[in-house]
Specification:
heterodimer, A: 98 residues, mainly alpha, 2 strands, flat, B: alpha/beta, eleven-stranded mixed sheet, 16 helices, globular
Chain lengths: 98, 496
């Protein structure tokens, strides 16, 4: 068993997914099978091989720090679930004081 | 009167340029075709009737004013619903973006508009491009025009089906592990994944940023090349975009000979799991290429057998990070905001309600693979395999100009057949994934129908990074010879 139901519940919390109980069972079984299959990368990945994160070897890409046109506030807020006074309106982000 | 939906893109542009039909007539013919057949195929998530007719009118006005129209002006196109298009719904096949209208155009969208292409609408796809069948779309599957009970491939099944059903002569797809090439193969159409960085990703909703690449879909190789040159080229808005001249793919497609080309057959892409009829058509394709004057050899790429495993660690890791942007705060769905819940609770409820099963599976898998304690064993090891696969390509390209393989191990499978077995679904991308991991170019071109089921088979042609022209050259020569011997493959598709 590579991954347990409790681990899936923990990962779902980290990933901000409020999974239902039946989903936890379902995904734990499936993810166990998938992890069993992908773990074979270890068969050939020896210590002396350098990792590749990206196919194009890139260093930092710079541009001049100049003012240029961008979205105005109305367009930026047009798709927001809630907006108020020209800003995104969000649910509370701090715990309420006791 | 000519059926305007049956023309190639190059012919369509010529007809408009020469005034044999107006761009509005061409657009209307395709909108009529969509109205007649898309209820059964479901290639489109949104048809932009007003926008398409407006763009077509603008082309007609430019022609009347004597402007020089580009090579694809007035040609209708179907755009995968993963590209932003200002004011037009963009869902990525997900409920979490239902009803969202982006405030800006992707660079690809902008270049299509500037070239006078007429965007008919947005095509169906697996949710956030995760899948090989379009069954993971939150809006229901697209059906394969060859057999409505079968999948059209994925994730870009809407784009490939729109071509095969003559609803559009051109489409745009994105390819992270095969999402342009596999749909092309199973619908008898052409699809190309350019070199990574060849086409801007700005405004393309990200799945896995180090693998995603937009590319052209068409019914023939020259049309794909023409579209390739419209969308390719450096874009300062995408820092991974390559600042080099675009390979001359149109000239290569027009050249269409393979004299002296060295073609490598990848030994690892055969055997168990490959359908007999796919193997047969592939073997015949290699014989045809050889008869045209190419020098065919067998090559071994031993680490390609590990590509699928590496991919299903790298991709979930990148997508679990990319999809964190769907946080219910700035755009898209918000669920459970009743004044009592915290932002974090609303975020978790929204993502639970807005994402489908495959997206959740991959987010959890990626979160796991990136976790402290597992990172080295999974993500780190997968990145090393990526190096080994790239080295395999480098070695093979020392003796070959291009490599070939079947595009997919099987023809189109039945809707529902693999939906409960993620690993079986992942196998559809077995042959296409290596080019995404290495960043090279690759495309699929039809090579006949499998004898046992009468469904299309695709030939994959792989080229080194920045040598996209080589694959077009081979694919065009092969297409010409194959069509001469067997006729256009889509002539065999059933009337809808």
């Amino acid at each position: 068993m590579a991954i347990t139901r409790d681990e899936v519940a923990h990962l779902a919390r980290l990933a901000r997914l409020a999974l239902r109980d039946d989903e936890l069972d379902h995904f734990a079984t499936q993810l166990d099978v998938i992890l069993g299959a992908v773990a074979r990368v270890a068969e050939v990945a020896a210590d002396d091989i350098r990792p590749t994160s990206h196919s194009v070897p890139l260093t930092n890409v710079f541009r001049p720090d100049e003012v240029r046109p961008s979205l105005d506030p109305v367009a930026s807020l047009a798709g927001a679930p809630a907006a108020e006074d020209g800003r995104f309106r969000v649910p509370r982000i701090l715990e309420e004081e006791a | 009167m000519t059926d305007l939906t049956r023309l190639t893109a190059a012919e369509t542009a010529r007809v408009v340029r020469d005034g044999e039909a107006s761009a509005v007539d061409v657009a209307q013919a395709h909108l009529d075709r969509i109205a007649a057949v898309d209820e059964r195929v479901h290639a489109f998530l949104h048809v932009d009737i007003e926008g398409a007719l407006g763009a077509a009118r603008a082309v007609d006005e430019r022609r009347a004013a004597g402007d020089d129209l580009g090579p694809l002006a007035g040609v209708p196109l179907a755009l995968k619903d993963v590209f932003t298009m200002a004011g037009v719904p963009t869902t990525c096949g997900s409920k979490i973006l239902e009803g969202w209208r982006p405030p800006y155009d992707a660079t690809v969208t902008r270049r299509l508009k500037d070239a006078g292409l007429v965007i008919l609408g947005k095509t169906n796809m697996d949710e956030f491009a995760m899948g090989s069948s379009t069954e993971n779309s939150a809006y229901g599957p697209t059906r394969n025009p060859w057999d409505l009970d079968r999948i059209p491939g994925g994730s870009g099944g809407g784009s490939s089906a729109s071509l095969a059903a003559f609803m559009a002569p051109l489409a745009i797809g994105t390819d992270t592990g095969g999402s342009i090439r596999q749909p092309a193969a199973v619908t008898g159409t052409v699809g190309a994944k350019p070199t990574y960085g060849g086409v801007s990703r700005y405004g393309l909703v990200a799945l896995a940023s180090s693998l995603d690449q937009a590319g052209p879909c068409a019914r023939n190789v020259l049309d794909a090349a023409l579209l390739h040159e419209v969308i390719a080229g450096h874009d300062p808005f995408d820092s991974t975009s390559i600042d080099r001249p675009v390979p001359e793919v149109v000239a290569a497609a027009r050249r269409g000979d393979v004299q002296g080309m060295r073609v490598g057959v990848v030994r690892e892409f055969a055997g168990e799991g490959y359908q007999a009829g796919v193997q047969q058509r592939f073997t015949e394709a290699v014989e045809l290429i050889s008869s045209l004057g190419a020098d065919v050899v067998e090559v071994s790429c031993p680490h390609f057998d590990y590509a699928l495993a590496a991919y299903y660690l790298i991709l979930p890791s990148e997508c679990s990070s990319n999809l964190a942007r769907f946080d219910a705060m700035r755009y898209g769905l918000r669920v459970g905001d009743d004044g009592t819940r915290s932002a974090e609770e609303v975020m978790s409820l929204t993502r639970e309600a807005g994402f489908g099963d495959e997206v959740k599976r991959r987010i959890i898998l990626g979160t796991y693979a990136l976790s402290s304690g597992y990172y080295d064993a999974y993500y780190g090891q997968a990145q090393k395999v990526r190096t080994l696969i790239t080295d395999d390509f480098t070695k093979a390209f020392e003796t070959c100009d291009v490599l070939v393989s079947p595009t997919t191990p099987t023809t189109a499978f039945r809707i529902g057949e693999r939906v409960d077995d993620p690993l079986a679904m992942y196998l559809a991308d077995l042959c296409t994934i290596p080019s995404n991991l290495s960043g090279g170019a690759a495309m699929s071109v039809p090579c006949g129908l499998a004898p046992e089921d009468g469904l299309p088979v695709g030939l994959q042609v792989m080229a080194p990074a920045l040598a996209d022209d080589r694959m077009y050259r081979l694919a065009a020569a092969f297409e010409a010879a194959h069509t001469e011997a067997h006729g256009p493959i889509l002539d065999g598709a059933p009337a809808l």
